[in-house]
Design a protein that fits this description.
- This protein is of the alpha+beta class.
- Helices cover 28% and strands 40% of the residues.
- The protein has a four-stranded antiparallel beta sheet.
- The longest helix has 17 residues.
- The protein starts with a helix and ends with a strand.
């Protein structure tokens, strides 16, 4: 009923709000997404394993590696440069592999973790967001 609702809101208004004081010295926790991209699967998996090992050594919350479906880029082209002769074709493809790793940590710790030796051909993209 209306009188019960008004009573409830009056009692809630008299309760003081709880203040959440975060210590200023403590580092702010960020949600960090590391995106790894490469054409070479072995190099990509090696870098993923090193990043996750470093994160677990620092006792961070880690999710991943999440394997994103492989992009396959196709190019089909004629073998003959002039267009004469039989119609023969060359088919080329490039496979792009992608992995995602999510971390919950301060940004200073991520700098330490990502300072590992990254294999050639592996691209690393780091995205930082507040929790």
């Amino acid at each position: 009923t209306l009188s019960e609702c008004l009573f409830f809101f009056d009692t809630m208004a008299s309760i003081p709000p709880v203040k959440k004081d975060a210590p200023a010295a403590a580092a702010q926790i960020h949600k960090i997404r590391i995106t790894l991209t490469s054409r070479n699967t072995k190099a990509l998996e090696k870098v993923c394993a090193e990043l996750i090992k470093g994160a677990k050594d620092h006792k961070l919350r880690v999710k991943g590696p999440v394997r994103i479906p492989t992009k396959v880029l196709h190019i089909t082209t004629r073998k003959s440069p002039c267009g004469e002769g039989t119609n023969t074709w060359d088919r080329y493809e490039m496979r792009i592999h992608k992995r995602l790793i999510d971390l919950h940590s301060p940004s200073e710790v991520v700098k330490q973790i990502t300072s590992i030796n990254i294999e050639p051909g592996v691209e690393v993209e780091v995205t930082v967001a507040d929790v």
